[in-house]
Design a protein that fits this description.
- The chain has about 525 residues and is an alpha+beta fold.
- It folds into 4 domains: about 5-185, Hypothetical protein af1432, CATH 1.10.3210; about 195-335, Beta Polymerase, domain 2 (2-Layer Sandwich), CATH 3.30.460; about 365-420, no CATH class; about 425-520, Roll (Ubiquitin-like (UB roll)).
- About 55% of the residues lie in helices and about 10% in strands.
- The protein has 22 helices and 10 strands.
- The chain has helices at about 5-10, 15-30, 45-55, 60-70, 75, 80-105, 115-125, 130-145, 150-170, 175-190, 190-205, 205-225, 240-250, 270-280, 325-330, 360-370, 390-400, 405-420, 440-445, 450-455, 490-495, 500-520; strands at about 230-235, 260-265, 290, 305-310, 315-325, 420-425, 430-435, 455-460, 465, 475-480.
- A 5-stranded mixed beta sheet has the order 1-2-5-4-3.
- Helix 10 (about 175-190) packs across helix 11 (about 190-205).
- The chain binds manganese (II) ion.
Length: about 525
């Protein structure tokens, strides 16, 4: 039998208040989901409980954990938002509604829309906690994907691999990223997965024994120099990251040295560099493999020193050196920064305050613009390189560059980027990103000029509408076309996007030229 203690046991010193909240949410959700079953045949509530446990393990606060327990109430248990607000307050309702909204987005494998969809996730998760709860929800769904009907598995796994795992990586929550990748990879690319499995099998023969032996040798070398206060640990790279690396290295498995890595965790940053010195003094390092992510953190805040050495008995091993704090940061990422802290978005006794909105995106940015910088290069680059930065982060970073201060940046972000853009869907669920007040005409041209040129009518959310209807976030739009239909002069007034205007103008000019020549003859 499960109980609220399953969650509470994962929280470090929960306050009495936290405890009461979690117990209440537990009982409420258990009752609301009563009689509902998962594909696996388990009670539905188990899913809510497991989601909450993942959040507790990540170190999220009691409100996020409670929202994790309640996250499927609106959509799957038919509980009214008013009831959630009455029982648990505005903030928890806000989190639950946020997660519900994100659940409506579907990825259908249209490559060109991946970036939009990621952006949409960010835009809709005004509060970071919403995104993290959604990630926890997805992780449990992936852990149980074998029970889901076959025809759904591929879509869910692809969505996880293309949308959720990259967002989790972006947030630096490696613990989640690795598991999400490992669980979805075999469903999305079964053949490639088999290749990686074979490579790992070949390369990691007696891996445990080899690592134990090397760890022992390293500890001895460090002890000789008086360093005894260390912790060691090792990790196996996710199958998906190994696959991506294989592709980069032309499928040459011999060029991959970091399938497993020994981690050395020490008290201070100075210790990290000292340990590096001792290791290089004891084992010959591979040239060009030393990466100082302490001096130059990765864009997602990851910090550690990496080096790869010859172990002396025929092996090559990656070593990662870091402090306890860096270790926690690398496993839990941004989740480790917001632990137990209340978000400024909601202050006691009032509703929403704008201050906290997008604050977490801001947190991601300054590092994002350093992405293209060579790690070993101590000099800051004269010009910021955007190479390799996902376009949605780049767009955000450009906003920041143009803005003077944080406050202005926030204003720009809210007004230009999110408030002036809407995200709408094709009937298949592909996302189209348009300026606010766009019409079905803009939508049609955003899909394809041929669709715009032959548009007769449009349905929004299943209802026929006039072509000057202003589209709203989340609308599903279906365009009707016929060969006899064509743009009219009025469309020029209605269209908002440059693309649509240009195409309409071209057709109108053609029509005008035709009329003229007809008139002359
Ligand atoms: Mn769920």
């Amino acid at each position: 039998m499960s109980s609220p203690n399953d969650i509470l046991a994962l929280i470090k010193d929960p306050s009495a208040e936290d405890q009461t909240l979690i117990e209440k949410a537990y009982q409420f959700a258990e009752k609301a989901h009563e009689g509902q079953k998962r594909y696996s045949g388990e009670p539905y509530f188990n899913h809510a409980l497991e989601t909450a446990k993942i959040l507790a393990e990540l170190g999220m606060g009691a409100k996020s954990i409670a929202a994790g327990l309640l996250h499927d109430l609106l959509e799957d248990a038919g509980v009214k938002p008013e009831i959630v607000e009455k029982e648990f307050g505005k903030e928890i309702l806000f989190l639950v509604e946020g997660v519900t909204k994100l659940g409506k987005l579907r990825y259908h494998g249209a490559e060109r829309h991946i970036e939009s969809l990621r952006k949409l996730f960010v835009a809709m998760s005004e509060d970071l906690r919403v995104l993290i709860i959604k990630l926890a929800d997805r992780l449990h769904n992936m852990r149980t994907i074998q029970f889901v009907p076959k025809e759904k598995q591929q879509r869910i796994a692809a969505e996880t691999l293309e949308i959720y795992a990259p967002l989790s990586y972006r947030l630096g929550v490696r613990k989640l990223t690795r598991e999400l990748e490992n669980l979805s990879f075999p469903y999305v690319y079964p053949k490639e997965y088999e290749i990686v499995k074979e490579v790992i099998k070949q390369k990691s023969k007696n891996m445990d024994a080899r690592i134990v032996k090397f760890t022992h040798s390293v500890k001895k070398a460090l002890a000789k120099k008086g360093i005894t206060q260390i912790k060691t640990d090792y990790r196996i790279k996710s199958y998906w990251s190994i696959y991506k690396k294989l592709v980069r290295k032309n499928m040459d498995a011999d060029k991959i040295y970091d399938i497993s890595a020994l981690r050395i965790i020490v008290p201070t940053v100075a210790d990290c560099y000292q340990v590096l010195g001792i290791i290089h003094g004891s084992y010959r390092p591979l040239p060009g493999r030393i990466k100082d992510y302490i001096a130059f953190p990765k864009p997602n805040d990851y910090q550690s020193i990496h080096t790869t050495v010859f172990t002396g008995d025929g092996d090559i091993m990656e070593v990662q050196i870091r402090t306890e704090e860096m270790h926690r940061g690398s496993e839990y990422g941004i989740a480790s920064h917001i632990t137990y802290k209340e978000y400024p978005r909601f202050k006691k006794g009032e509703g929403e305050s704008a201050a906290g909105i997008f604050a977490w995106i801001l947190k991601l940015l300054p590092k994002a613009v350093n992405f293209g910088r060579p790690k070993e290069d101590a000099k800051p680059p004269s010009k910021i390189s955007y190479e390799g930065v996902p376009s949605w982060i780049k767009e955000l970073a450009e906003y920041q560059e143009k803005s003077v201060g944080e406050k202005e940046f926030m204003e720009n972000l809210k007004s230009d980027f999110f408030e002036h853009r809407i995200f709408v869907f094709t009937p298949k669920g592909d996302v189209v990103d348009l300026p606010i007040d766009s019409s079905p005409i803009d939508f049609a041209y955003a899909i394809h000029s041929d669709i715009g040129d032959r548009m007769c009518g449009a349905k929004v959310n299943g209802k026929l509408v006039s072509l000057d209807t202003a589209l709203k976030n989340g609308d599903i739009i279906e365009i009707q076309t016929k060969n006899i239909c064509a743009p009219t002069a009025k469309w020029m007034e209605v269209a908002k996007t440059a693309v649509a205007k240009k195409k309409i103008r071209a057709i109108l000019d053609k029509q005008a030229a035709k009329t003229k020549s007809v008139g002359k003859s």
